[in-house]
Amino acid sequence: MAGPSRTSGQTGNKPESTGGSTSGATSELKNKAQETAHKAQDVVSNVAQKAQDTASQATQKAQEMASNLGQKAQDMASTASQKADDALSSVGDTITSLAGTLRQNAPHEGAMGTAASAVADRLQAGGHYLQEHGMQDMTDDLQALVRRFPVQSVLVGLGVGFLLGQACSRR
Q1: Is the residue at 100 inside a domain?
Q2: Does residue 150 belong to any structural domain of this protein?
Q3: Does residue 1 belong to any structural domain of this protein?
Q4: How far is residue 72 from each of residues 4, 59, 79, 110, measured CA to CA in Å?
Q5: Is the sign of the CA dihedral 126, 132, 134, 137 positive or negative?
């Protein structure tokens, strides 16, 4: 019996020492695995935060660029509108001046004098209208005229289109 008890005693001691070192090694591996997992989570969290920050910055820059582009488009449209209004005013001034010249140089009596006076009056009224009103006013007036006389407006449009077609086909 001494043999079996000795073997069991030795066997009992070895598993305890092996078991103790195995459980210690297992604990140590578990701790390292958890530590590595925490580090990986921290890295992933940092990367995700940096990606989110970068996306936020990119979005903000895109919004700023879009806002700047919109502002530039508005500025250009405003400038173009102002130039068109200035050109219309200049044309109006020229037409008004032409009306004055017509009054001075045309006969003052007879049928020719009456016709020249009527034409000069219309030229002067048109010149003043162009000087005082911008493109938006003219567009509004044209829309009102088309709404008031739709059939006549379509006929005028067809006539102008026909004349332009004839003029372009002759060249």
Answers
A1: yes
A2: yes
A3: no
A4: 98, 20, 10, 58
A5: negative
Task: Write out the two tokens for 87.
Answer: 């050109």
110-151: per-residue pLDDT in tens? 888 899 899 999 999 999 998 888 888 889 999 999 999 999
Give the whole-angstrom CA distance, residue 166 versus residue 42: 78
**DSSP line for 134-165:** -HHHHHHHHHHHHHHSHHHHHHHHHHHHHHHH
Q: How many domains does the chain have?
A: 1
| Spatial separation of the C-alpha atoms in residues 54 and 52, rounded to whole Å | 5
Q: For the residues of 6-28, what is the DSSP string, one character each?
A: HHHHHHHHHHHHHHHHHHHHHHH
Assigned domain for 159 exists: no
Q: For tokens 């026909």, name the residue.
A: 162
CA 14 to each of CA 7, 11, 20, 31, 101: distance values in angstroms, whole numbers, following the listed order: 10, 5, 9, 25, 128
70, 80 contact by CB (below 8 A): no
Q: How many angstroms separate the Cα of 36 from the Cα of each of 22, 29, 31, 47?
A: 20, 10, 8, 16
Which domain, by its residues, includes 126? 22-154
54-80: per-residue pLDDT in tens? 988 989 998 898 889 889 988 898 898
